[in-house]
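cache lookup: miss for this entity combination. No prior model stored, computing from scratch. Input as submitted by user K.M.:
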Amino acid sequence: MDLLIPAMLTIITAATPLLFAALGEMVTEKSGVLNLGVEGMMVMGAIIGFIAVHASGSVTVAIFAAVLAGICMAAIFALFVLTFHASQVPTGLALTIFGIGLSALMGQNMVGIAYGGMPKIAIPGLAALPVVGTLFFQQDFLVYLSIAMVAAIHYFLHKTRAGLILRAVGDSHDAAHAMGYSVIKIRFMAILFGGAMAGLSGAYLSLAYSPMWVEQMTAGRGWIALALVVFACWRPVRVLFGAYLFGGISILQLHAQALGIGIPSQVMSMLPYLATILVLVIISRDVSKIKLNAPASLGRPFHPSR
Amino acid sequence: MLKKTLFSLVLAAALAVGTTAAAETKAAFVYVGPIGDHGYSYQHDQGRLALEKELGIKTSYVESVPEGADAERVIRQLASSGHNIIFTTSFGFMNPTLKVAKQFKDIKFEHATGYKRADNVSTYSARFYEGRTILGTIAGKMTKSNVVGYIASFPIPEVIRGIDAFTLALRKVNPAATVKVVWVNSWFDPGKEGDAAKALIDQGVDIITQHTDSPAPLQVAESRGVYAFGQASDMKAFAPKAQLTSIIDNWNNYYIDRVKAVMDGTWTSTDTWHGLKQGMVEMAPYGDAVPADVRQLADGVKQAIIDGTLHPFQGPIKNQKGELVVKAGEVISDADLLGLNWYVEGVEGSIPK
């Protein structure tokens, strides 16, 4: 137990950035758009959030700035793929490369500056509970927000009319268009939402997880988030489960090493991707299973004229 | 039309660069990481800046160059644009450097951490393990739990040498102490390095040392109230209370000496492996937490290494099984150190294959 609670706390911090980014990407993909630029949007959120906290001293300002940075990056992507009909995959890759470069440029004077980290908020009453209180009710604001977002997105996608329309656009943009819905507008919003969530994820990295700025500090977490969406079969609660699983694996392997249990750490580093490939294999074997949840129009460009 | 004008402009600029270069010495640097990493590449770049300041010459650099085919292109580009000496600062640039050097006999090349040389290619590296001996000495005196954490990047001889040197020094002053090693499979991943630090602290470690490049483990140490050592540069800004000292890579003098040699025409191909004595490895000022007697002891160890009276790999040295590998009075030779692939007694766990 002495070891379990601290390990669990570390898992929560490792899972939160994955959760934000994957939830955002999931909503984008549900609208039928594949944005491979998660890493780029995330790293921009990280640098803008860090610059903002450094300049203003306010975490609230920093979080808003990071969200805005993610939205701006996503808007560039949306403009290219929706307005100019650029292919989604190369545009997303370009966005990642662009984000890494631009963040490095903007962060030149931020290297070597320390920040104390986000304050923890203890929920009155609940925080005093044994075990559960320490784990779930003495966290920083963004951890609470990430869990709340799972519920909100689940509710939105599966219980509201707007969510239904979003899913319809992702499954068959032609049908949604024929029904009179503005496919472009809905996809634009979904992409921007994905950007905002990636920005939050970046803010969590540079403000709470390892509160500092260093180039390329996302270190591939954007790609893990992308894999996570497929792993979770585009379901919010499964994204939550997957993020904590992926986070848990990476933390437990560190503990295993420190305890002298010999699992090659390289194997652990590939596990998230292996798990994703496995899920891909399983769901692609059964067409009906994909049809159940994978957005049918994912990655296909939409021309209203057709 | 515009394209043509642009092209002739570029051409003119290139020609202009070409003609001025003949008159003065120009040095170029190739870095594997971004200069903003606040670690390895950052320190090389500090060397470049010192060179500019000291000799007043022009330098160029290319950062974040992947090891492989791209590196050759970058080095060739630098060689054909009027540079007289080119420093390639990562192990993976070894073969590209030699390939380009063959075609540019008049240009001098300096490759860091490699082992292949030619008439116009030198190699250089630093004995960072000497610094680790000092860290181990301090850690041995200051640990209360007698378990020290080590965050490692990749299982290559350079890193294993550091772990062994640290452990030998640690157990020399504190035979009961042991080292827990966690490999993160990255030179640079602040999140994962921080997680590794948390995992180690959760398991009872009260001092953290690292062979990865970001200051994240120090930040974790600071917030958890344990001690830590910085890496490659002084990281006190990230852990004012926790940092006991830091190993600093100082390439300044080497870069200045080598470029001077080019200017004087005295440059020859050499193999340099410098340490504390030559100032290529430096220690940051002690943190406030280090008591006077420990400072004195660490200073003594440092002086002994500089004087040559103490070798970090001096026998008797036992391996993990407790077998005597190096007898008392003997030391591990440089050649064996360069290929070191086993843990000494006191390191827990095994080296990942």
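stored under new cache key. The mean pLDDT of chain B is 89.
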